[in-house]
Amino acid sequence: MPDTPIFDSEYYQPSKTELHSLPVSSPPETQSVFDAQIQDSSTTEATVSQNSSSVQEKNFDIVVENDPSDVLRIVDTGRPYRKIREWTIING
Amino acid sequence: MAKTPEVVPPKPRRYTSVSRKTEPRVCQGDIFRNIEYFERVIETDDKIKISSIIFPYVIILTQDCDLEQDHSDRTITSKTNHDKHLFSVLVAPLYNVEHLRGGAHLQELGMTMQLINSNKASFVKNNEISRYHYLEFNPQDVQLPPLAIDFKHYFSLNVEYLKERIPTHWVCKIAELHRENVCQRFASFLARIGLPNI
What we know:
The structure holds two protein chains of two kinds.
Chain A lengths: L15 H4 L10 H28 L7 E2 L14 E8 L4
Antiparallel strand pairs in A: 1-2
Chain B lengths: L17 E2 L10 E14 L3 E14 L3 H12 L13 E8 H5 L16 H8 L6 E4 L11 E4 L4 E3 L1 H6 L1 H4 E5 L1 H15 L8
Antiparallel strand pairs in B: 1-8, 2-3, 2-8, 3-4, 4-6, 4-7, 5-6
């Protein structure tokens, strides 16, 4: 057993609760869903601004919206899962 | 007189050693959690869809010297060229061994994988199947379940993407000796030669 913990204070240290969510039987975590949605909205903003220039090149008036089905599945089961984000382009 | 059954002491567990994060860069052998792999971008007439896969754990496989030189190239502004820049970093996912044995570790992706029966389970644990590398951690060091790297599922990630996630998604770094073992086995897996059936 090491004398000092391996984690530097400035780095992330997973809590026991998170780690214990790994087994198959672990239920969906409300907190995870919340976090993921928050993270998504920021990602969306970034992508919107990036998309603007490329879409304008195609002579679109662009409205990019975050689809309600943005987060299809955020369940922390310890397994990989797929996430699909969708935006609608409205022609001018 | 009945013979007293011999008590066999349990085999000592061979844990994978981990080390501290000492450098502010992505290192070979680092394990990150909840990493997003961008699968594809689909553009139709009026929709843009981005499909990604979130992997609970990945391990960095790119050579550490390459990662170090890339970091120097990006941070030392006086350099006159970008010869050592990397476009991406090779990683491989780590799957919970219990999920892997049941063939259900990718069920959230709609994929059914091969069952690993109890006989083959020991092969995985002893690293006798070239595709997998078994890692078991001392709970005193880091609280992770037994994990297996799947070399077949390697993919690449952007260097800056990973670097930005060090403060929040970095879990641990496996110690050098174990790291070398992982990389030697990964190289061996990639270099295998497929022969036709006779």
